[in-house]
Amino acid sequence: MDDLFYFIISKYNYWAAIVLLFIGLFGIIVRNNLMKKIIGMVIFQTAILLFIVSIGVKRGATVPILKFSLDKQPLLDATAYANPLPHVLILTAIVVGVAVLGVALALLQKIQRVHGTIEEDEILEDMRK
Amino acid sequence: MTWDASLLWQFDILVLLMMVICAVTALALEGLLSSAIVTGVYSFLICLMWTHMMAVDVAFTEAAVGAAISTVIFLGTAQYISRWIKKDRPGEQGIKQLTIVIAVICAVMMLNATRDLPDWADPASPASKHLSPEYIEQAYHETATPNVVTAVLADYRSYDTMFEAVVVFAAALVVMVLLRRTSHKHRKVLHLRPKREGRDTVLRGAAQSIIPVMQIFALYVLCHGHYSPGGGFQGGVIFGASFILLALCYNLKFSMNRFREHAVLWCCAGGVLLYAGIGAACLGLGWNFLGYAALADLLGVSEKMARSHGILAVEVGVGITVMAVMVSLYYDLASGGDLEDGL
Amino acid sequence: MMDHAPILMIVVPVFASLALTLIGPMGHRAAYGLLILSVAGSLAAAMATLVQVVWTGQAVHYRMGDWVPPMGIELVIDHLSAGVLVMISGCALLTAIYSMHTARQDNPDRLNHYYALFALLVAGLMGMTATGDVFNLYVLLEISALSSYGLLARGKGRAYYATFRYLMMGTIGASFYLLGVGYLYIMTGSLNMADLAEILKRPELGASVNVRIGFTLIILGVWIKMALFPLHAWMPNAYSRAGTTTACLIAPLMTKVSVYVMLRIMFTVFSVDYVFQQIAWSRLVIYLASAAAVLGMITALSQRDLRKMLTYIIVAEIGYLTGGAWLANTAGYTGAVYHILADGLMTLCLFMAVGAIIYRTGVSTSAAMEGIFQRMPVTAGVFLIAAASVVGIPPTCGFFSKWYLLQGAVQAGEWVFVAALIIAGLVAATLFFRLLERAFFGRLDDPVMATGSEEPHTGARTIRLNEAPLTMLLPLVFTGAALLGLGIYTNEVVRYLIRWSVPAGM
Amino acid sequence: MILDILVILAMLTGLLFFVATTVGIIRFPDFYSRVHAAGKGDTLSTTLFLGGAILFLLRDFGTDTLLTAGKLLLIVFYIFIASPTATHAIIDAGYEFRVPYWTRSKKDNSTKGDEESMDNGFYPEDLKG
Q1: Phi, psi at A81, each rounded to 5°
Q2: Which of C161, C296, C324, D74 is the most buried (most CB within 10 A)?
Q3: Tens-digit pLDDT string for chain D (129 aa)
Q4: Which structural domains are found in chain A, ordered by start?
Q5: Structure ipTM
Q6: Is A77 helix (H, G, I), strand (E, B) or coil?
Q7: Distance in Å, alpha carbon of C22 to nearest chain B alpha carbon
Q8: Is C273 in CB contact (< 8 Å) with chain B?
Q9: For B114-200, where are the alpha helices, taking DSSP H only?
């Protein structure tokens, strides 16, 4: 029982990320509305970010900002701070995500103007004409 | 096999569960506005999760970018498209169903494979053992920056960060090329935009009291990034958000009188230019690209302090670009590109 | 300055794009000149690096900010990437020169922003090729992707939906790549390619299912990006509806750079042993590649729109490249790498020639080819060379890459791939023969031509020379000559460049 | 000791108001009263809860705790300004678009009326919520 408990609490974070990932992918594939596809894309991306940030967590570690002792010396114990590298990667990835989102929404407005709809099947019909 | 109580797994599971619910709701709702708002809620929850994972810089960025700016540009777009989705028609769904089956199989395989992953929050995992201790132990001695994330972001991996600024610059450029002042001849748009005079005293009063503080706070976040969570992105986004708030409480024209179209464009490119220019200056001084230590002689400080100053300078560059790009995206997306009025 | 060539070839186009944005609406000529200058600078730096690499026989390393590699980011330019870098900047320079008229035609407004995105795309592709860091590759992948969305959406009407689909697929591909990098990072703790390769040699990681998932996700992401057969649906519409300049720039480069990334991940980050012994899907991949080659060519045969036809030819070529890379022998690898260079030039040449024809006739279906030999003899001649290269006729480089691929396939005993190569070649021959027949014997008084020509048609059968403008013709002729030149100097290219990059253990 | 009791009391009251707000948002019949519940309850409960947190921090009095308490106080202050303003803006927009309000006679189809009214227009002020 203890083992099972330990197993669950040491993996649940990855499970949540993978479940969210596939919820997002499902949204992109199945939904017919392009706005919903974009929302699916956002969820898909953030799920990956969640997965990568969870690599940086260490038990008993705190925020990766160095603490100082009373005589102004930094406390440089690597186990005391969370891993900063995934945070850096994800900062970059978040900004990339919002850039892609902006472009996708601009395209969406253009599609609405040209085709008069943002439902995928109606656009395809409109294009066949 | 003891579990440290400092990680509240109960709290985590609750937040993650709520995130899954939000994700499903955002995709299932029929109103597009509501799904945009629920996506914002999802972003806030992920922020909470990240704060709890000790990734404060990331959570800060997600709060400013994911929960605030993304929601605003979602709503800005929503006014030009229909508010409700139509029910999916039955019909040729064969390929979609096949894809879903494949996706579910992949999901099961990946969930199964998590058994082999290092345990969550294990201090002995490869990622915690290999590169990261060196960053934590050396960053302060080499860059005089206590916030290790800032040091890694703007110095060790500053080449990435430069291109990150280029990415947002490219996004602003693409959106501008796509939307701004293009002809509206083909427009079959549901025009739902309400007339806004901006005469509401309560809103104005609140904006007047909040916006200056926001801008000061943004500058604080930008400049204090060495010592606390924050830096160029977060500061830039907050500064940009202050102009967006101005546009929301008054109107778009009012905000554009204070931050003109040309100035926005100049700031977009200028920030990246500052960043890449510092890199090139280091190159000119005989070091490699973005080797801030080259600035030591110029500034009359030690190499360590030169790196610290270099980090500050590139953070300012990133801040300027991100601020201008957020404003530019808002101007274009909220007004449908004609910059007349919107949201 | 020689030491800094690796970074200069990436940041010079970035500076150019900033300048194009900052200076504001300047004359068309100034913007055009600035673009050409920056891309030429990039090409010069790439050439210098290539010479250095070939001369010393060693990879050039450039440490960003003087940080030692696993901590900082480094650029690594070895024989493979040096060749691809020269190909990218060369193609970009030719397209930039070519764009004098077409870019202005496609972009009546905001020409400098268009050129700024052009420069950013070049910077992104160069950066992807030069980098030695897997995460940095993701960032640059997104730069090239974002700027290509902007460029493709400059096409008319229906381009928006096609671009939207491309954006969705591109984002899924890039995200898969990022997730794969995340899996590798969680198992190894490193992001530097050389460091990763070192760590991944450990036997316990070789057997790990999560490393395998990471590899699969990265390869899947790259396949989506390069439009390998079942994942190619986004590409034909996106490319065929773009403006001429955009198509000339993106069609040859984006997919080839993705193939390069696949090779990099397979052989630099992972190893030959891992990919072919531990993973062992090469049989399956070769079937996919064969299907891509045959079906791509057959679909191309059924297209009426010229550019759509060329896009399906790219789908087929991606099949050749992927198949060659997964053959697991030196000949196949040589063929694949050589074909990256050859196919880049071939595709560029075809798209330029078709662009010139469309520019003069205003028609984009195969009817535009009617009587081209009389009207545009130079363009038609270069088109003939490019067609010969796609089919694989001796003096052109297409023959040699196919020769190596066939040799590799026979050595590996992959008869399906051999058959696919031969069938695809025959279909390509049919396709181009049909076109060239119309081009050679086509009648000028075809009603389609009457509407397309610039002056009202008089009904006379006079042969009016109506060649493309010089700025289009020069790069076109140069590309045609390069196709022949690359073919003639095959031995040298293989001996000095490709042999050096063959991964250990192949 | 007294401080502890005060902290617990403030936080509990805050939570109670949060629950009341949630119940109000779900149970109230029309747009206006729901927003009213959200605006009022949210502001008060956040204030109380953060007030509790400030008191908790000030138990061990020092420069850094005082600084943190000051920051929290600023957050309280700005929520106190922003949240009612947002509520005001939403209600104002609803009023301008003539969203029908609930009366006792319309009790049966009140929810339906609300849904229909949502269709009438777009509320830009939604954002500031």
Answers
A1: -120, 145
A2: C324
A3: 788 899 999 999 999 999 999 999 888 888 888 888 888 888 999 999 999 999 888 888 888 888 889 989 999 998 888 888 888 888 888 887 777 777 765 444 444 444 444 444 444 444 443
A4: 2-128 (1.10.287.3510)
A5: 0.91
A6: coil
A7: 6
A8: no
A9: 126-129, 132-143, 148-151, 158-179
